[in-house]
Amino acid sequence: MNRRSFLGWGAAGFAALCSSVAVSFGAVLRYLVPDVFYEPPQTFKVGKPADFAYGPPTFLADEKIYVFRDREKGFSVASAVCTHLGCTVNHFQSDDRFHCPCHGSIFAANGAVVHGPAPKPLPWFEVTLARDGQLSVDKDKVVPSTYHLMV
Ligand code: FES
Fold first, then answer.
1. Which residues pair with 33 in a beta bridge?
2. Is any ligand 1 atom within 6 A of the Cβ of residue 78?
3. 140 close to 42: Cβ distance less than 8 angstroms
4. Quick one: pLDDT at residue 40?
5. Does the CB atom of residue 100 touch ligand 1 within 6 A?
6. Closest CA relative to residue 133, chosen from 55, 45, 43, 64
7. 68 CB contacts (<8 Å, ≥6 apart)?
8. Average pLDDT of each block of 10 consecutive residues along the chain (151 residues)?
9. H-type alpha helices, 33-93
10. How is domain 43-143 classified at the CATH fold level?
11. How far is the CA of 101 from the centre of ligand 1 (A)?
């Protein structure tokens, strides 16, 4: 084997090594990225405005939210997930507060922490009117508790 031939085979071998490393790296990356995300969608429709009564909020168990409908202010949506360890809070009309059954946190009507151990207030989510006339909630958009949608 002469020198030119040796360098040619060396370059080919090096190229094969690089391509196999690149393919392996791509396979590892593909393995680390899941095909399906099992997290539920953060934007969803909850029904037509007429589906919601005035007065006590409507609890939607699947979405873990409370939908409020007020005659003067309109719609607002609060999270029903306790900010302590994630239990579902209950809204009591008698004191207009949210109570967590797990460790006793209490949240005011606007979601503020009245009694711990919850470290943060309940978040409120943006609610909009979709083109088909249904209310659409976006859990990725946290809004102040004073935010309302008038329909
Ligand atoms: S999960 Fe609500 S107080 Fe602990």
1. none
2. no
3. yes
4. 78
5. yes
6. 45
7. 57, 75, 76, 77, 78
8. 69 79 78 73 91 92 94 94 95 94 95 93 95 94 91 83
9. none
10. Rieske Iron-sulfur Protein (2.102.10)
11. 7
Q: Whose CA is nearest to atom 1 of ligand 1?
A: 85
**Which atom, in ligand 1's list, is nearest to the CA of 89?**
2
pLDDT at 76: 95
Question: For ligand 1, is residue 106 a contact (CB within 6 Å)?
Answer: no
Say which amino acid occupies 61: A
Distance of CA 136 from the midpoint of ligand 1 (Å): 28
pTM to 2 decimal places:
0.74
Q: Nearest C-alpha to atom 3 of ligand 1 is from which residue? A: 103
Angle at 124 between CA 120 and CA 69, to 5 degrees: 135
